[in-house]
Task: inverse folding
């Protein structure tokens, strides 16, 4: 799976593949053998080619604050290496900036196409964000009360691919 | 610490009989926490004041009582004399500690306290007024035999007269607003030709910023250091100094790294300057804790700069090397107790360094950054002191100063203290707002800093400290793994992780009930 992170106006591509006993991560020409676990709030234990460190990571929507070996980095999850916000299947985008007043789904829920996911209140109007397909709610990026901008990813869904057998994991 | 029981009689903590019962702390953030801790240690009840945006702050929670001032706008809250006096009366506080900033050096506030029969924890309002007016302060200090920077502090403010005086002092020359501070209303003049124009522009800025266009001229020092002396005086005519603090590392004329002892002083200069500081404080009848600031030039000449009539931000370094609790002494002196410390017995041992952690972006002209601090982890260890008013999930607003916390360390020697500070900063986690932590580390790592080769121009003369490292692959890997492990504000706990799996994939890391996603 390709992930893109924006840091100081540069986009970094990180290719993550799960192997049977570890993650294999490619950045540029480098290949790393990685294992990781969460050991506390925002606190990870990561082993890269057998060298261990304990970064602190806080994800807030598409923003990620990473503290690693004494330095803090503010990253933004980018969708593609281009700045253009392409639509990615499974990422549910906020159609409008505003406040999340209601979250219907929980992480792990299987939702039907058209089911309500969240309500965003903007300029005293309510906007319902619905599931565009049947699938599993993998991650809710914001809770009730959060303020979001237009175009931010609200929910990550894993589309139901039982028919095609294309599931990534 | 509410309901904390003392095992001593309160009289054992005090010498006098005028014991303060309840103190209102007219401040916020780390300094309010610092002061209320000292009060609690002495068995004094505390009242915090707060504006609406600070309702959930540590300083409010840690106080015995709290009083809401409403509107966060400083003029309506922490700078509002009427509201604060009313709060003290309503809550039955007999004394007010102003901390630093806000009303700490406002003579009207101190005199209002005096009129209302409330003890102002600091010097008298007359001393604050005198020291606040830099021209008067300098001439008073000069008569006490303390050197001041050669300059013109006269009343003739006609441009022609100022130009003439400026030429007499020589170049480079500094034009300063008489009522100025914090770098506002200052001009450096290098040639005779630009003098008239810069006098006019400085006057205009002073009038706008301080409502007073009086300026004065002084010699601009070569390779200057900012070295200040802590003084402590009681109401019974006893005055001592508690050695120096080197505060030359500044950005935008504000200190960011302070240390003691200074690498610029030897024992004899330290003694001379300490005596000068004590003399200056005595000359104005100073009481309580104060700081005499000096500029020291490359030839080790020292000149009185100004006196700060309050507790300084950087007081922890002095507390480390002397073992004296300055805030407790402030409280005791305000209660009328005599100072039992003696100049001959106070000593400076080891080395202390303080770093100020600001919510600001060094890469963007040190502009303050705001936002929610999602996560805080402070370094802990032997002789590491955190003065902090922050915690996870706290909102840093644009209403107040961006100082988040202070980190102070102590060790036997300067090199050990600097290394300890490097370690502590490398373990200082603030996620959510941009801070100057990495910038502080690059200053401490610089060979010139390590050699003690520092002046107030250090930062502008060492542009390399602005150079940020490239993002390492470890950070990108951490970010990717956080996404994969779904580290999110919803707090995915390790135990809960396994149950979150909604997929039927046998290789999903959420299927494995161990700390490691793959073993």
Result:
């Amino acid at each position: 799976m390709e992930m893109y992170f924006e840091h100081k106006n540069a986009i970094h591509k990180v290719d993550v593949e799960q192997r049977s006993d570890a993650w294999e991560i490619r950045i540029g020409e480098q290949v790393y053998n990685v294992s990781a676990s969460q050991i506390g709030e925002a606190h990870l234990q990561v082993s890269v080619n057998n060298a261990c460190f304990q970064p602190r990571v806080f994800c807030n929507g598409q923003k990620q604050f990473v503290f690693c070996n004494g330095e803090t980095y503010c990253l933004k999850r980018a969708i593609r290496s281009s700045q253009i916000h392409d639509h990615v299947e499974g990422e549910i985008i906020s159609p409008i900036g505003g406040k999340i007043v209601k979250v219907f789904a929980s992480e792990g829920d299987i939702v039907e196409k058209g089911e309500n996911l969240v309500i965003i209140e903007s300029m005293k109007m309510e906007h319902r964000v619905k599931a565009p397909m049947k699938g599993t709610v993998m991650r809710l990026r914001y809770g009730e009360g959060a303020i979001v901008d237009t175009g931010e990813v609200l929910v990550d869904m894993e589309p139901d691919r039982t028919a095609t057998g294309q599931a990534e994991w | 610490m509410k309901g904390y029981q003392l095992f001593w009689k309160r009289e054992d903590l005090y010498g006098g009989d005028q014991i303060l019962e309840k103190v209102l702390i007219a401040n916020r953030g780390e300094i309010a926490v610092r002061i209320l801790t000292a009060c609690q240690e002495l068995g004094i009840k505390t009242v915090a004041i707060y504006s609406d945006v600070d309702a959930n702050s540590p300083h409010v929670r840690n106080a015995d009582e709290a009083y809401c001032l409403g509107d966060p706008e400083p003029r309506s809250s922490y700078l509002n004399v009427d509201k604060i006096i009313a709060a003290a009366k309503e809550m039955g506080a007999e004394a007010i500690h102003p901390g630093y900033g806000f009303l700490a050096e406002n003579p009207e506030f101190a005199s209002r306290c005096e009129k209302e029969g409330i003890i102002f924890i600091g010097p008298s309002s007359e001393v604050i007024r005198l020291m606040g007016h830099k021209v008067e302060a300098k001439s008073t200090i000069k008569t006490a035999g303390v050197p001041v920077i050669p300059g013109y502090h006269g009343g003739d403010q006609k441009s022609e007269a100022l130009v003439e005086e400026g030429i007499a002092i020589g170049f480079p020359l500094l034009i300063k607003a008489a009522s100025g501070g914090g770098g506002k209303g200052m001009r450096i003049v290098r040639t005779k030709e630009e003098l008239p124009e810069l006098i006019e522009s400085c006057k205009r800025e002073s009038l706008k910023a301080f409502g007073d266009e009086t300026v004065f001229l002084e010699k601009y020092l070569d390779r200057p250091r900012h070295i200040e002396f802590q003084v402590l005086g009681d109401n019974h005519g006893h005055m001592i100094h508690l050695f120096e603090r080197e505060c030359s590392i500044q950005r935008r004329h504000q200190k960011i790294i302070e240390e003691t002892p200074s690498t610029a002083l030897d024992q004899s200069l330290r003694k001379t300057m300490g005596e000068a500081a004590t003399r200056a404080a005595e000359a104005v009848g100073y009481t309580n804790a104060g700081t005499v600031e000096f500029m020291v030039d490359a030839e080790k000449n020292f000149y009185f700069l100004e006196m700060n009539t309050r507790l300084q931000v950087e007081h922890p370094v002095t507390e480390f090397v002397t073992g004296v609790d300055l805030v407790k002494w402030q409280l005791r002196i305000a209660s009328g107790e005599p100072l039992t410390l003696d100049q001959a017995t106070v000593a400076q041992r080891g080395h202390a360094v303080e770093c100020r952690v600001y919510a600001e972006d060094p890469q963007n002209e040190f502009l303050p950054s705001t936002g929610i601090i999602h996560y805080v982890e402070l370094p802990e260890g032997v002789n590491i002191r955190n003065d902090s008013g922050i915690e996870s999930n706290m909102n840093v607003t644009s209403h107040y100063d961006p100082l988040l916390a202070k980190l102070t360390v102590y060790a036997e020697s300067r090199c050990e203290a600097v290394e300890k500070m490097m370690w502590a900063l490398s373990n200082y986690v603030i996620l959510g707002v941009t801070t100057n932590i990495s910038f502080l580390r690059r200053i401490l790592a610089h060979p010139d800093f390590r050699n003690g080769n520092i002046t107030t121009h250090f930062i502008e003369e060492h542009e390399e400290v602005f150079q940020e490292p490239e993002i390492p692959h470890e950070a990108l890997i951490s970010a990717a793994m956080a996404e994969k492990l779904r580290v999110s504000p919803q707090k995915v706990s390790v135990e809960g992780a396994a149950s979150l799996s909604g997929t039927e994939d046998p290789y999903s890391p959420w299927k494995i009930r161990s700390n490691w996603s793959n073993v």
Observations:
- The mean pLDDT of chain B is 89.
